[in-house]
Amino acid sequence: MPGAATAAVVDSRQCKQHAEGPAAVLAIGTANPTNIVYQDGFADYYFGLTKSEHLTELKDKMKRICKHIDPSTSIVALFIIIISHRSGIEKRYIHLDEKLIREHPEIIDKHMPSLENRVDIVTTEIPKLAESAARKAIAEWGRPATDITHLIFSTYSGCSAPSADLKLASLLGLNPSVSRTILSLHGCSGGGRALQLAKELAENNRDARVLIACAELTLICFSNPDESKIVGHGLFGDGAGAIIVGADPLVDGERPLFEMVLASQTTIPGTEHALGMQTTCSGIDFHLSIQVPMLIKDNIRQCLLDTFRLVGNMDPNWNDLFWAVHPGGRAILDNIEGELQLQPTKLAASRHVLSEYGNMSGTTIAFVLDDLRRRQEKEGDEHEQPEWGVMLAFGPGITIEAMVLRNPLS
């Protein structure tokens, strides 16, 4: 039967195109703008930058929010407390400064359209910030940039083409044949979505090496003081993260940091209203409901159980795992910790990143993984490391990106 023989040959060749083992994180790099804003002085910085010092009542409210809870605080302001200073945020890195406002006064004039100019700025600055993170990851990886076969770029800050992925490829000197994918407006789950896609690409394309780049600038959604928007201004910062993913066979010098065992994406039904972004003539408007932390709390256990049961029907003890959780805010971390009865040290990497950088949207998970691996390397042989772990990221939908990880050092 000639037909059957031909089919067998084709199938054999297809099998050789797959990697020999699961994908793994091989290197991580991070970067931030130089401008640092400390949370204690954020009210003065923000109201001064927007020339809104005359809004004394709103500014005083923000100052109180950053320091203590006032008995007369409204529900909205209480939520701001949860995500700002009392969330453990000490400082953030922000590209926007007085010089940029002087050059582009339309950014703080709600009566003037500013989207086009904002897009012009981020179109240049986003790839540059991503380049800084990517070069660190490539240096750690130890192979030439031209060995990158796939590039995934995740951002909510870009609205132009050629997009940030092509510009980053040019800045890094990647091969013209590199396979590029741009992920747009995934918000805080963008890094998790990129990791799952990178895993699939690495495992289904033998010798593939995937560069993930995530970069965000809050400039695209910066606005004047408004009680409904002050939440995001008290939480978000700017940054870029880069992760290199590959699968067996590894070459000399490559070292797996985390094995990527299995990934899942879960959308909580009926929560489209709770978290989202909308492009307007004045940039991107964020909508962040006070229900988000509770919605995640109510669904996280079942999501994790469903994910782990796909890995040999595992039903783990949550405290036997290591954790890389996107720190959307203290309320989210506290709710996950309480719901799963995690030991306080389990979310230490997430809390530290939140303290030092704030929420950098989808970029933040790269910082958490970087912090987590450094903790594990520092502890070394002194402490037994958990073999299994989990990565979590949350975005519009509400979408939960989950990934089961394995520690190759355990």
Automatic annotation (TrEMBL):
One of its GO terms (biological process) is polyketide biosynthetic process. Residues 259-406 form the Chalcone/stilbene synthase C-terminal domain. It holds the Pfam family Chal_sti_synt_N. Keywords: Acyltransferase, Transferase. The active site is at C188 (acyl-thioester intermediate). Residues 14-249 form the Chalcone/stilbene synthase N-terminal domain. GO terms for molecular function: acyltransferase activity, transferring groups other than amino-acyl groups. PANTHER family: HYDROXYMETHYLGLUTARYL-COA SYNTHASE (PTHR11877), OS10G0177300 PROTEIN (PTHR11877:SF23). Belongs to the thiolase-like superfamily. Chalcone/stilbene synthases family. This is Chalcone synthase.
